[in-house]
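To the wet lab folks,

You asked to see what we're planning to order before we commit. Fair enough. Below is the target structure as tokens, and below that is the sequence we designed to fit it. If anything looks off to you, flag it before the synthesis order goes out.
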């Protein structure tokens, strides 16, 4: 029997037909889904982002500069950066410790600890801010003791930091836990067997293996810390020039019908988000081989 008379095999099918066989959908359905996704991104992501920058510069560079350099705006920028500078390193340390404990050890209450890590994802930021007010406010559980010792947490920097830490805590841990679990403990056990101390094992084995997951978690944590609104709005008191972060300052300006100034400050937040995204993309492109190797590992 000649080869021409043999039945067609799967490898003899046309590429388009083979692709359809694998995906189970026609080209029309595939392109329709892509078009819907792009339309959604344009409508709910790109268009609002473009609008922010267009409105920010609508009155010219001089008006934009004045809005950014206005004393209350500068105070909001400084406070936002300060809160992020405190909350993000704290969450890095605690997130790494929690992820290491959950992924590398077995102990009683492990599932409960995992649930607590996810708690900020399921609780409204406004509710979490209210909890801090009920605990540390003047009429709160610890309020009389704090007042007697002249300590102010709510409506001051400590309260804003606490609220920000709470809502941003899961990001680092949640990026690290699945990666650490997938790596297992074989390398750490080998290092300990060869005489390395637990601290050295962590620094030279565990941490290098999860550095990219840690980096992504830090990026997400920092972006949320700078953009958090609900919890911070409750605990800050929105005291202009004192406890207003950038998102709160944008709301106040907009409510006072100062649209150009509001969009100018909002453009800084949007710019920080774009810089974060660009940095992530640049590092992914520059270290693509190393990232792929770590994921395969």
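Sequence we intend to order:
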């Amino acid at each position: 029997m000649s080869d021409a008379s043999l039945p067609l095999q799967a490898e003899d099918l046309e590429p388009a037909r083979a692709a359809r066989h694998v995906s189970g959908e026609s080209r029309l359905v595939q392109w329709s889904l892509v078009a819907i996704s792009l339309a959604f991104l344009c409508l709910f992501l790109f268009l609002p982002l473009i609008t922010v920058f267009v409105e920010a510069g609508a009155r010219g560079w001089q008006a934009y500069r004045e809005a950014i350099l206005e004393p209350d705006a500068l105070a909001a920028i400084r406070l936002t950066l300060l809160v992020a500078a405190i909350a993000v390193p704290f969450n890095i340390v605690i997130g790494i410790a929690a992820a290491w404990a959950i992924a590398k050890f077995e102990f009683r209450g492990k599932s409960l600890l995992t649930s607590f890590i996810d708690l900020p994802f399921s609780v409204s930021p406004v509710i979490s801010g209210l909890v801090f007010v009920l605990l540390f406010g003047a009429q709160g559980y610890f309020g009389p003791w704090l007042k007697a010792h002249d300590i102010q947490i709510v409506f001051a920097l400590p309260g804003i930091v606490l609220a920000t830490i709470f809502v941003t805590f899961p990001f680092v841990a949640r990026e690290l836990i699945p990666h650490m679990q997938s790596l297992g403990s074989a390398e750490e056990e080998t290092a300990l067997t060869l005489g390395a101390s637990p601290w050295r094992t962590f620094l030279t084995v565990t941490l290098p293996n999860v550095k990219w997951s840690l980096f992504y978690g830090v990026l997400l944590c920092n972006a949320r810390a700078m953009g958090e609104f609900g919890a911070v709005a409750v605990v800050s008191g929105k005291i202009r020039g004192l406890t207003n972060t950038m998102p709160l300052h944008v709301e106040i300006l907009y409510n006072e019908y100062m649209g150009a100034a509001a969009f100018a400050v909002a453009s800084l937040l949007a710019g920080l988000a774009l810089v974060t995204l660009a940095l992530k993309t640049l590092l992914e492109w520059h270290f693509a081989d190393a990232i792929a190797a770590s994921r395969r590992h």
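Structural context that might help your review: Confidence is low (pLDDT under 50) at residues 1-6. The radius of gyration is 25 Å.

Thanks,
Computational group
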